[in-house]
Amino acid sequence: MAFLALDNLTKSFGSHIAVDRLTLGVEKGEFVSLLGPSGCGKTTTLQMIAGFVEPSAGAITLEGRNLRAVKPAKRGLGIVFQSYALFPHMTVAENVSFGLEMQGIAAAERARRVGETLDLVGLGEFAGRFPRQLSGGQQQRVALARALVIRPQILLLDEPLSNLDAKLREEMQIELRQIQRTVGTTTILVTHDQGEAMALSDRIVVMNHGRAEQIGPPHEAYERPATAFVAGFLGKTNLVNGASVRPERISFAASGLAGTVKTRIFQGNHWLYQVDTADGLVTVIRQNTGEAMPEEGAAVHLAWGAS
Amino acid sequence: MSKNGPIALAYHALFVIFMLAPIVVVCWVAFTPEGFLSFPIQHWSLRWFKALAFYPEFVAAFWRSLWLGALSSALAVTVSVPAALAIARYRFRGREAMTALFMSPLMIPNIVLGIAFLRFFTEIGLSGTFIGLVLSHIVIVLPFALRLTLASAIGLDRAIEHAAVSLGASEWTVLKRVTLPLIVPGLASGWALAFINSFDEVTMTVFVAAPGTETLPVRMFLYIQDNIDPLVTSVSACVIAVAVAALVALDRAYGLERLLVGRGSHGR
Amino acid sequence: MAYLLSLPALLLFAGVVVIPLAMTVILTFHDWGQYKGIEPVFILKNWREVFGDPYYGEMFGRTFRIALIVTVLAALFGAPEAYILNRMKSPWRGIFLLVVLGPLLISVVARTLGWALLFGGNSGLVNKVLLSLGVISGAIPFMFTETGMVVALVHVLMPYMVLSVWAALQRLDPQIENAAVALGAGPLTVLRRIVLPQAMPGILSGGVIVFALAASAFATPAIIGGRRLKVASTLVYDEFLNTLNWPLGAVVAVLLLAALAMIVIGANRLVERRYAQVFG
Prior knowledge:
The structure holds three protein chains of three kinds. In chain A, 28% of the residues lie in helices and 33% in strands. Chain A is α+β, with helices and mostly antiparallel strands. Chain A folds into two domains: 4-229, Rossmann fold (3-Layer(aba) Sandwich), CATH 3.40.50.300; 239-303, CATH 2.40.50.140. Chain A is globular. Chain B has helices spanning 6-29, 47-51, 56-89, 95-107, 110-124, 130-155, 158-166, 171-200, 205-208, 216-226, 230-253, 256-261. In chain B, α3 (56-89) runs parallel beside α6, α6 (130-155) crosses α8 and α7 runs antiparallel to α8 (171-200). In chain B, 48% of the residues are buried. Chain B has a domain at 56-226: Orthogonal Bundle (MetI-like fold). Chain B is mainly α. Chains B and C meet through α1, α3, α4, α5 and α6 of B and α1, α3, α4, α5 and α7 of C.
């Protein structure tokens, strides 16, 4: 049996089914992302694991123990909330120390572990500050430290990076991945950002309307999407002759599907094309190698290999 | 934003004079040395402030009002906290009706509440007692306490409490260490607003109080009913001084417009 | 859980609000006599008396007439002031907001006393000022008149109106006036077509508050109106604490409550229906 197992987990609010018979096994040390648009049930799933939402049906087991019988306060899970949910009236050190205090750990040991964890997230010198004196990225790290310091069996991340700007988000993704590797905590991430999910996870669960559409490694889901929804959600895709073809797999060639360039947009490291063809509009992405590229209005032929 | 023109400023000046005139006049007349009301006064004197010492009922009424306000506001806030949490957190049958009930003292004229309390307290033997005063004042200030308590309970991010729970805190610990500290500013302002309303209430209290349990506004009102003389102006001047001090303190501490409008609206 | 949390407040309100109000309604049907006191019987005598005697109709008419005039005056003078306040720069705005709203913290009795001093018979300061400005040709009586009550009540209740309009103006996007000006609107057009419609919900809700408080005001009409000029609340006070005819006083009080509730709820409905779509 898996380390954490969700078995036919279901949650309905009245007639609305938020999560529909979700079955998932997470191995120890694994990083799994629940990915999907808002309202797909990913957050509800996380809240059921955390214990803040009572499942309508199904089982949650951790190392074979029935987790549903355990109170939220006793589950020992580390959670990073979307809003960070730091205690605004406590300092950074007091925030991180809170969980240890609840476990009845002695003051000296607490201080040592708080310092250790703050160093891990690179906030050693900010221990005495209050949350509102920190930047968004720093608050995010405090939230992470607070969740990790209790050495949780599972780390739950609820859209932890969605409040950061694009550049900081990328940096935090790399750091999050490194920290997770270092401490080896089993992690479940909830996100609507497919790039984030693919960058961080060992496996992703693509959810839609409360159901898991595909569970698998990011690369596999991207290359071999099980459904049209998965294909569309994980990246731009073209439906040509009934087959799904990623835009970066299409190249301009001497022969192939004939068409006319409708729009061309320069995006720095790549060009984005919309090409009018007999099969409808086709999106094409070409790496910017510095060479001359077809201009708007040009007649082109599109080719792609079987994938 | 465009500036106010001269006409607007002239209007504003007249408006401010209108708002301040009666208050200034009361304070001014209080300094008369004469034994009768005269305006404008010819000389300045503290005669009528000194005279207050010989009217212990005013002094006693002042302290009674102070205690009554402090106590009934504190109790109103205490009762408001769990009710506000219930209204903010749960969707239950009768939630709307319950909220309307707690806010109803704002809608019911104080004169009606006054006679209702008089009838009720007479029947159960609380008429003219301090307990009766406290009970009735809790009711009339509760809407103010509840409104601000509710605002801070609604403004509280539930994820913060969930975070505490996920770290192993019991319900009681969450309440004590997280929820209450975070809503304390709301409770304090709720108490202050409740206190002001209790301290100034006269219409309802006039029915509930009896000689010996009169509050300051009631004593002043009854005194004016009989005769308007410089003594009551010096009492009023003291009341105004206390109010101005409270006003400045409240504004410094919390921002008066936030307190009165009931939500954050700091300048753009 | 929710019920448990609300229990203390619910018990308090059931005991100290619902029961006393119910007792008051029952009281209106009891009999009363000079020597026998209150007799717990069920009769319609008090209701008949209030509806039959034109004295009470006149008194209620006066009460609501005063309330209406006070409301209109408060809106007419308070709304422009709120707008002017809103346009002021930072330190002044805070200071004058304090000056205008501050009187709310001062006892109504003290404020009304100020007006009694200012009115002070025919030679009062208000008359002197108005005469010297040529606004009036002869002294007009303020004490013990409806005019005096109206002036004092406008002063007492003005902060509520300013506060309400101020709150509505706070929601107004400051760029919106500039947008109208950029489209070629003159200052008066901006006021009439842009500012006023957006301030209207504030004026109306402020008006409801002022009307309700004016119609049930007690201390101000009692001090300014004296013993002769009665409004609903001062009449109730007289019946309860002087004449001791509680059942009759209770009828007047219950009528006042019912009339106010109907007017306030009706006005709120109207305001909500009118503005729900735009400002919901």
